Task: structure prediction
Amino acid sequence: MKILVTGGAGFMGSAFVRHVLANHPEDLIVNLDKLTYAGNLDNLKEVEKNDRYKFVKGDITDEPIVSKLAADQVDVIVNFAAETHVDRSILNPRDFIMTDIVGTYNLLEATKKYKIARYIQISTDEVFGSTPKKFIEESKFDPSSPYSASKAGADLLCSAYTKTYQLPIVVTHACNNYGPYHYPEKLIPLAITNLLENKKVPVYGDGKQVREWLYVDDHARAIDMLVRKEDVDSVYNIGTGEELANLDLVKRLLQLLNKDESYIEFVKDRPAHDQRYALDSSRLREVGFKPKIKLDDGLAKTVKWFQDSRWWWDKLKSGEYLEYYKKQYQSK
Ligand code: NAD
Ligand code: TYD
Result:
C-alpha cells in the first residue's frame, strides 16, 4: 500500500510514519510537510534512509504539489498537517484558517480527482468544545478557539464531501496526545523540559481544567487500524478514558522529576479556556482498538525520553520559541 502522509514531520504524524514503516514491510510512505516551526526532520532520523520512505517539503495549500503527489498511485491519504497550538491561534489565527481549512479542501479535491481509496482526517476532541459529559461522535460542534474552529470547519468539509461526492472519508477525533518528540510549547513537554532546566511550570488559571490523555504510539496504532480495516464508519473518537486535571498532571510530573510544588507558577488563564474534554470511544473499542499504554507508564516513559533526548529539545527552546514564550506567559 502507498500512503501519502501530510504533516508527517510533526509530533503525531512522525509517530505514525515510524509505526507504519516498522510494522508493514510492504508499505510505501510519502511524507508531505511544510516544516513549520513544529515540523522537524529530527523526528524522522530513524527512517530517513529507509527506501520505502520519501520526504517532500511542501505546503498542503499548494494545489499543484498536492495534486502531483496524489496522482502518483496513492492508495490512502492521512492528513496530520495542521497548525495545532491553541495559544498561537489566539495570537494569530490566519495560518490556522489557511492550513487547517484550505489545506484540507485541497486534499479532499485530490481525493476526489484521483479516486483515492481512503482519506483519513486527523481531528480533535476540541471541535466539540467544553463538556460536563462525554462526547459521542455525533455530538454538536461548539469550538472555543480559532484552532478548534478551523479544525471543525475542516471536519464539516469532510462530511459534506462524503455526502455530496460519496468519498471514502474517515474523520477521527482524538483526545490530547503525549509522548516522545512532543514540541515543548504544549503542557506536558513544556513542563518536563522546564523542570529539567530548573524553571517553573506555568499553570493557567486554577489548573482545574480536565484533559483526557493518549500515548502517541497508541494513537498511531488506532490510525493504522483505520487505514486497513475493510468496513469503517465515517467518524471515530479516539480516547482512553484517562482524565486528569492539569494541576494533578503537573504534580505527577514534579514527582517523577523529584521537584517540589514551588516549581508551579499560576499564570493568567487562557481566554475561552475549555474546562473539560472527554470522549466516549466505544465505537472504536467495538472495532477492536484498545490503548496499550496506561497514563502512569506513559508519563514515566515520556519523562525518561526527554531526559535522554536533550539533543532534540534543547535547540528548539530558543529564537522564535523564546519570543512566543515571552508573549505568552505573563505572571499574574
Ligand atoms: P504538530 O504541530 O506537532 O505538527 C504539525 C505538522 O504539520 C508539522 O510537521 C508542520 O510542519 C506540518 N504543517 C503545518 N502546516 C502545514 C502545511 N500548510 N502544509 C504541510 N505541512 C504543514 O501537530 P501534532 O500534535 O502532531 O498534530 C497532528 C494532527 O493531530 C493535527 O491535525 C492536530 O489538529 C491533530 N490532533 C492533535 C492532538 C494533540 O494532542 N497534539 C490531539 C488531537 C488531534
Ligand atoms: P495544551 O498542551 O496546549 O493542549 P490543548 O490546549 O490542546 O488541550 O494544553 C493542555 C492543558 O494545559 C490546557 O488546559 C491548557 C493548559 N496549559 C497550562 O496550564 N499551562 C501551559 O503552559 C500550557 C501550554 C497549557
Observations:
- Residues 2-177+214-238 form a domain with the Rossmann fold fold (CATH 3.40.50.720).
- The chain has two domains: 2-177+214-238, 185-211+241-275+294-328.
